Amino acid sequence: MPRRVEVDFKVLDDILKKDYDHGGVTVLVSGAKGSGKTTLLLRLAENLAKKELVIWRGMFSCQWLFSLVPVNLILPCKTKVILIKEQGSERVSPESVVEYVSYYSDVNEVYRCTKKKALNVIYTRNIYDWIKIFEFLIYRDDVRFVDILFDEIEDLFPLNPAGEIWNLVEYGARLLKEFRKTYISLYAATQKVSDVDYRILNKINYFVYLRGAKIRKNSIVEQRIVNFLNPGVAIIEGSYYQYFRFSDINRPPVRAKISLGETPSPLSYTI
Asked: pLDDT tens-digit profile of 92-101?
């Protein structure tokens, strides 16, 4: 498991500490490629998993391999997982790398596959299955806090969508509005804030800027400050802004490839 390093979580109390009076929060992390967006999400997951249910969007890059907490890999049925050690071509089973692996045949089964004190990595064949997952979480029959960490959020909520995708993003924005009241928090990341649909940006409570980020319109943070941020330093903006630090994560000598089979059209999802 990667080495643990202390992070200045006290500065992040506004987005990490939850109570039932205020509910969930929505956070958007932005920064240039290689600025540490995924590392920061993993650091947040490390802290959140101590008390809350943490869900992670599974991607082909398999950044969950660097998790600082046990990993629960949640996959669609008939998914092929190939894990390859960095040196050479030795293939290993998922069970030999992560703590838990489970499969689902319908997205409504995903929630029952999750585990406490783990990084619950969910893979979907269709990006818009996440809309179904969001919907299910809102109507779940418990009141525990749920945290969703979603890298490259623009894949789900792109700027200027057309046709049916416009309607899906509109519905997604309405679901995000319900997150706070249903004790769900979203910690999302993107390279550029401007790549995300404005209806989603309007639902964000806090913006986090890393090196190379372009600040949002009407931000109280000056662009020149963000331009000169050092690696491992970030700015969090809410009603005010402040700096915090986070450190890198040692990478294990394993790389992963995941085959999900045929991917249906986004238009196969109806609302």
From this structure: 677 777 899 9
